[in-house]
Design a protein that fits this description.
This protein is α/β, with parallel strands linked by helices. Helices cover 40% and strands 18% of the residues. The chain contains 8 helices and 7 strands, in the order E-H-E-H-H-H-E-H-E-E-E-H-E-H-H. A hairpin with a 7-residue loop joins strand 4 and strand 5. Helix 1 runs parallel beside helix 7. It is globular and about 60 Å long.
C-alpha cells in the first residue's frame, strides 16, 4: 500500500481547473488502488503560516536545546514534514500566478524544507547538503491563463512554476516529477475545452498503470 498526498493551492473552488483535474487524478487513483491511503491539504483555503523570526530561530536551534516556545513555533511545520515523510506520491494542483506559484504553496514549501528533517547540512563536507526525502514521486497539474508554458512551448521562458518546484523539491530529494498543463483559462471557449481535454487524457495515462507509476 502507498500513501498519496493531495495538495490544492488554488483559492478558487468550483471554478478551479487544477482542483477539478487533481480530483479526477485522485478518483482514478482510488479506483485502481483501493487499498492506498489518500490524504489532503487544502492550501488554497487553509494555507500554512508564513515563516517568522521565531520559526527561523527554532528551526536552526539543536532540537535538544529548543524551548517550549520554539517547539510550539515549529509544531505546524513538524506536522507537515511528518505527513510528507510518510507519503509515497504527491499530486499538486498549482495555478500559475504572475508566472510563479501561489503564495500559499510557497508557504507550504518554506515549512517543509527543514534542515535536519528533509535535508541534512554538513558545512565541513565537500557536498554539504544531503536530501532526506528520496524515493517519492510527484505529479503537478498546472493551470495557466494562456497556453504554451510547457517545455518547448512559446511561453516556456516565462514559466517559473516548473523550474522552481523542480529545484525546491529536488533539493530535499523529490526529483521524480511529472507535469501536466492546462491553459487558455483567460480565453475560454473551444481553446479552453481542448486544453482541458488534453490534460484529462494525460491524467488518465498517468494513473492507468500502478506498476509503471510506482516504479518510475
Amino acid at each position: 500500500m502507498a500513501q498519496l498526498l493531495r495538495l490544492d493551492a488554488s483559492p478558487r473552488q468550483s471554478r478551479s481547473h487544477t482542483r477539478t483535474l487533481v480530483g479526477e487524478f485522485v478518483d482514478r487513483w482510488r479506483d485502481a488502488r483501493p487499498d492506498d491511503t489518500v490524504i489532503r491539504r487544502d492550501l488554497g483555503h487553509q494555507p500554512p503560516a508564513h515563516l517568522t523570526e521565531e520559526w527561523i530561530a527554532a528551526a536552526f536551534t539543536d532540537p535538544d536545546e529548543r524551548t517550549c516556545a520554539m517547539r510550539a513555533a515549529l509544531a505546524d511545520s513538524d506536522e507537515l514534514v511528518d505527513e510528507l515523510l510518510a507519503t509515497d506520491v504527491l499530486v499538486l494542483g498549482v495555478p500559475m500566478y504572475n508566472f510563479g506559484i501561489p503564495a500559499m504553496l510557497k508557504a507550504y514549501i518554506d515549512n517543509i524544507v527543514r534542515v535536519g528533517r528533509t535535508f541534512a547540512f554538513d558545512p565541513a563536507a565537500e557536498a554539504p547538503y544531503t536530501p532526506l526525502t528520496a524515493g517519492k514521486r510527484a505529479f503537478v497539474i498546472v493551470g495557466t491563463g494562456d497556453a504554451g508554458y510547457e517545455t518547448g512551448g512559446p511561453l516556456a521562458h516565462m514559466n517559473h512554476v516548473e523550474p522552481y518546484l523542480r529545484t525546491a523539491l529536488g533539493f530535499i530529494g523529490i526529483d521524480d516529477l511529472e507535469f501536466v498543463y492546462t491553459g487558455n483559462d483567460e480565453f475560454g471557449g473551444e481553446r479552453l475545452r481542448r486544453s482541458l481535454e488534453s490534460a484529462r487524457e494525460r491524467v488518465a495515462d498517468l494513473t492507468a498503470d500502478r506498476e509503471a507509476v510506482m516504479a518510475s
